[in-house]
Amino acid sequence: MTFTSPRPRSESADVQHLVDSLEDAWRAPAIATGRLLVSGARRRADERPYLDAFLQEFGLSNQEGIALMCLAEALLRIPDDDTADRLIAEKVSSGNWDAHSGRSSSLFVNASTWGLMLTGRLVELPDEMTGDTRNWMRGLSQRMTEPVVRNALRRAMRIIGGEFVVGRSIDEALKRCASEPALALCSFDMLGEGARTDADAERYTEAYASAIEAIAAARPAGDITSLHGYHAISIKLSALDPRYSLTQRKRTLDRLLPRALELTRLAAARGLGLTIDAEEQDRLELSLELIGALARDPAMRNWPGLGLAVQAYGRRAPQVVDHVTALANELRRPLAVRLVKGAYWDSEIKRAQERGLAEYPVYTRKCSTDVAYLACARKLISAAPLVYSQFATHNAHTIGAILAIRRAAPGQPALEFQRLHGMGVLLYDEARRQITDFPPVRVYAPVGPHADLLAYLVRRLLENGANTSFVNRFMDERVSVDDVVVDPVDEIRARLKDSSLAHPRIPLPPQLFGRSRRNSSGLDFGLEHTLQNLRKICQTHPISELPPFKPPSAVAPAFEAAASAFTAWQQRSVEDRAACLERAADLLEEQRDQFLSLLVQEAGKTFSDALAEVREAADFCRYYAAEARLMLATPQRLVGPTGETNDLHLVGRGVFACISPWNFPLAIFAGQIVAALVTGNTVVAKPAETTPRVALAFAELLQHAGIPSDALKVLPMIGRDFGETALEHPALAGVVFTGSTATARWLNQKLASRQGAILPLIAETGGINAMIVDSTALPEQVVDDAITSAFGSAGQRCSALRLLCVQEDIADRIIDMLKGAIDTLVVGDPRDLAVDIGPVISLEAARQLRMHVDEMSRKGRLLKVGRLPSAQPIGYLTSIDPGRYVAPHLIELGSARDLTREAFGPVLHVVRYAAHDLPQLLADLRANGYGLTLGIQSRLEGTRHSVYALSNAGNVYVNRNMIGAVVGVQPFGGSGLSGTGPKAGGPHYLSRFVTERTLTINTTATGGNTALLSLD
Ligand SMILES: Cc1cc2nc3c(=O)[nH]c(=O)nc-3n(C[C@H](O)[C@H](O)[C@H](O)COP(=O)(O)OP(=O)(O)OC[C@H]3O[C@@H](n4cnc5c(N)ncnc54)[C@H](O)[C@@H]3O)c2cc1C
Question: Is the distance from the beta carbon of residue 278 to the nearest atom of ligand 1 less than 6 Å?
Fold first, then answer.
C-alpha cells in the first residue's frame, strides 16, 4: 500500500471540506473547557515555569527577544573569544533591556534577576556590576572584552538551554525524570542537526540505540504498566542518512531503512514506544513508504509501539491519517499516531514560494490548521483501538476539543496528550486539577549537549514567540480569556463570508510578484508522480541530431534580414512585443518536458538544474515584458517652459548580436534575445557550439509566440567565425555576450577597431567567487551551502563557489564535514534522478580540470576526491563518454592569492584565515580583479556590513548558497573582470538596449499658446 498525494485543490476547498467533515457537538464544550483551563492557569501565574514566562516576555515582536535568540543560537558554538565578544557586544547593544526590567514577576525573566543570575550567583563579578543589577546589560556592553562577562553570558545561554533540554546525556535525563513527577512519562529526543555525512548518521543511530537501551534499563523492576505507560523515544529519519530525499529513494531504502529497522527492532525487543518525527512536507511520501516498511517487518509483528507524527498543518494530513489507519487495518497491528500542528510552517511557505509550486503544502491561516487538527483528531479517535492517539498541543481550546470529541466516541478510547519539555506545564497541571480522569500527559524531552540544542531552541522560540501562538498569548492578562480561546470553525465561517480562506498577505507562489508578472512554475520533487514523469521524459522527447553548422557566409544575409525587419518590429507597440514574450513564457511552461529533456541530454544538466533553467528563461520573458511596459510604453514628459512639449522616448537601436554560453543554453540565450527584442531591436544570435538544439527549439517557440522570423535569426556556428564576421557587419547596433573574460576582451577590441558608430557591449563573464565563513556560522549550513554552490551544475556556473575562506578556529570541523558530504555526492548520467553531478561539457573541459587538480595534487594540496560512477547506468539511448565525468574535489590553498584562474568545474578550494586577518583576506580577493558573487556566513551584522562594503562582488549572499540568482529578485552580474553590467534580470538591463530620443514641439506655432491662454 503506497501513499499517493492527492491532486492539490485550492486552500479554500480544502478548508471547506474540513469544516464540512466536523459536526458541531464538540464546539461548545471545547470553548468551555478551554476557557476554564486558561482562567485557572492565569490564577496561578506565579507558578508558571521559566520558559512560558520567558517566551511571553521575549517574543519575536521585540528586539530583545530577537537579540537573545541570536545569542542563544550562536554563542555556545563560537570557539574563539574575540568573535564571541563581538557577538555579545552587537546583540546586547541592540536591545532596550531596561524595558523588560520588572515587567515580569518571573525570576527567570526579570532583567534585574538575569543580572543576579549572571553575576552574583553564577560567576564572580566585580561589585560595581553586581551592585547595579537593573543596568546589568549596559554594564556588560561597557565591559565587553572581559572574559568574565563572556563566560557569564555563555553560562546564561546554557541556563536558557537547560530549560529546553532535560539532560545533556540520556543518563542525566533519566535521573532527572526519576525525581521530577512532571517528567514521569517522556518521549526522549536525541538532539542534533540532520546528518550531513555517513559518519553523522552512524553516530546518531548509535546515540538512539544506546538511548533505547538506557531507557529500557531504567525501567523499574516489576513495572507492569503497558508500553504506553512508560517512557518512549522519538527519532528523526533525517538523522539516519545524509541524503534522505525522494530523489535518493534507492539509497534511502538501502541505507536509512536498515538503520531505522535496527532501532525499531531494538525498541520492540525492549518493549518501548518509538515515534518517527514528522519533518519537511517534501519528505512526506518517502517517510510513509519507510514507515510502511517498518510496520511490515515480521520481527515487530506483536509490538504495538511503532508510531509516527502527523502534521495537521499539512494539507494532506487527513489523507495521511486515512492511509495510516488503512495500514494498521491491513496489517492487523496497532500503530500510534502523534498529531502535531507542525513546526516548520515559515520554512514550508518560503520553500514553496522559491520552488514556484502551484499551491502551498500547508495552510496559510492558523485557524485552518486548528480545524485540520480537529478533523484529523476525529478520524484518529474513531480508529481506536487500532490507532493509539497522542495529541501534542499546548493549546487549551485544542485540549478541550479533543476531550469533547473523545467523549462522544463509543467506548471513550484511550489516548494521551503530549507537550514539549518546559512548555504547557501549568496548562496541563490545571487540566489535571479540573478534569477527573484526565488522560496521561507525555513530555517530549530533548536530550543532548548544549552546543547541539541551538537549532532546536531557535525553532521553539520562533514557533512559540509568534503572536499567533497560543503559548505566546495565553498568560498575557492584556488579552481576554475569550480572545485567547476562540472557536476556529467560527473564525473560518466568518472569513468565508469575505472571500478566500487563504491568507491575503501570503500570495500563492505563482502570484508572488503581484500583478506585474507571474512567477515561473516549478515542480515538487518530493512527489513520486512528478519523478515518474521525469523518468520518462528523455524517452518521450529524444533529442535530434546535431544541426549542421552554418558557414561564415551565413552571417551577412542574417544581418540583412534582421536589419530589414527592424523598422516594422520597432514600430509594433510595446504592448504587442511584451505580449509576445508573455506568450513565449507560457509556451515554454507548456512544453517544459521537451526543454527539460533537451537540457538534460544536450547540456548534461541534472533535472533539478534543468528545471531551474526553464524557470529562469520563463522569468526573463515575463520580467522583461513587464519592465518594457514600464520603461517604454509612454514617453517621459519633461518639464520645460510653457508653449512647448518635451518628450523623452526610448527606442531600439537596430540589430543586436547575442552570443550565449553552453552552461545556460536556454536561460541566458533567452534572456539576451528577449531583452533585445522587447526593446524594439532585432537579433542575430549565436548559441554555444555544444548546445545549439535547445537554442533552436527556443527560437522556434518564439516564432510561435509571434516574433517575426526575420526579427530573430539563429546561427549555430563556430564562435570565432561568427565574431569575425558579425562584428564587422554595418547593420550591427550592439553586442550582448556571456562567456569568458578573454573572449569579452577580444569582442571589445573588435568593436573598438570597427569603423562607424561606437556600439554598446554588454558582457557577463566569470569570477573567482569566494564564501567567507566566520566562527559564528552554523557548520551544517555552511556545508550545505558550500556543497550546493560549488558542485551544483557540476560547478559549471559563473556564479559557482570556487574559494571557501574559513576562519581557522572552525576550519578543521568544516573541512571534515565537507569531506564527508563530498562522499555522499553522486556523479553520473543526469538522466538518473539520483545524480547530483553530471558530466562536464566536453572532454577538453574535463582534461583542463584534471590538469588543475593534478597540479594541486603534486603540490600536496588535495584534501578529498569524491567518487566517480563505477559503470554507466544501462537503459539509456545514448551514452556519455566516461571521460567527461569529473569527481568533486576539495583542495586546500595556503592563501587566497594562490587561486588565480577560474577552474570551471566541480573543484572547491578552501583557505583558512585568522579572524584578525579578514581585511587582508578581502584585499587578496579584490586583487584578483573579478567581482561576481560572494557568500558570507556570519551571525555578526557588523562583519556582514564591512565585508559587503569592502568587496566588489556584484551579487552578495548572506547565510545561504550563492547560486541561482532569481530574475527580478537578485539581478545578476558583476564588475571588474566579471562583466560590464547592467545586471541581467534587473531594472536597468533594458536601458542598455535602447537609445534615447527627445521630441520637442512648439505648441504655439499653430495659433498661440492655447493652454496658457485658457488658464482660469
Ligand atoms: C510532543 C510533541 C512532539 C512534536 N513533534 C513534532 C514533529 O514530529 N514534527 C513537527 O513538525 N512538530 C512537532 N512538534 C511541534 C509542534 O508542531 C508544535 O509544538 C505545535 O505546532 C504547537 O501547536 P500548539 O497546539 O501547541 O499551539 P498553537 O499556538 O495552537 O499552534 C501553533 C501552530 O499553528 C500553526 N500555524 C501558525 N501560524 C499558522 C498559519 N498562518 N497558517 C497555518 N498554520 C499556522 C503552526 O503549526 C504552529 O506551530 C511537536 C510538539 C510536541 C508537543
Answer: yes
